[in-house]
Amino acid sequence: MSTTVSLPVLLAPVNEALTPALRLGWINPLPFTTGIILVEVTGRISGRVRQIPLVCTDYGDTLAVSTVRDNSQWILNLAATPVATVWLRGRKRTVDAQVYVAGERISGAASHTDWRSDLAACASRAGRMSVALLRLR
């Protein structure tokens, strides 16, 4: 008899171990590179703050984060409340988000109207993944 363990259960201890280092900025991307950041989103049902380490590409005033899983709760939470907090280089920063699923923007203000929004829409459509653009305040 085999036991199947879900991906969130497997990742929980890894995420917990990464959180202190991410708050200090140790694994964060430098400007115009890729690394890992800690994103805090509000649960759309519970209202509780959730912390998620995510791979991120830093484009200066905009961060691009994505997921290849089509049922990630953090992306649904971010779509429901498109304001979040990120820990970037040891500082807590507020961000405004735009969320793209299957090439369509499903939430967030149309504040990203340049090549980054085109890139996010294209990536989410081509890779069948969700992409969020996070504009630093």
Short summary of the structure?
Helix content is 28%, strand content 39%. It is an alpha+beta fold and 137 residues long.
- What fraction of residues sit in β-strands? 35-45%
The level of helicity is 25-40%
Pattern of helices and strands: HEEEHEEEHE
> In angstroms, what is the radius of gyration?
15 Å
Distance N to C terminus: 52 Å
How would you name the CATH homologous superfamily?
Electron Transport, Fmn-binding Protein, Chain A
What's the CATH architecture name? Answer: Roll
Give an overview in words.
By secondary structure, the chain is an alpha+beta fold. It has a single domain (about 5-135), classed as Roll (Pnp Oxidase, Chain A), CATH 2.30.110.10. The chain has 3 helices and 7 strands, in the order H-E-E-E-H-E-E-E-H-E. It has helices spanning about 5-25, 75-80, 115-125, and strands spanning about 35-40, 50-60, 60-65, 85-90, 90-100, 105, 130-135. A hairpin with a 3-residue loop joins strand 2 (about 50-60) and strand 3 (about 60-65). The protein is globular.
Write the layout of secondary structure elements.
Blueprint: H1 7-24, E1 34-42, E2 49-58, E3 62-67, H2 73-80, E4 83-88, E5 91-101, E6 104-107, H3 115-126, E7 130-136
Antiparallel strand pairs: 1-2, 1-4, 2-3, 3-7, 4-5, 5-6, 5-7
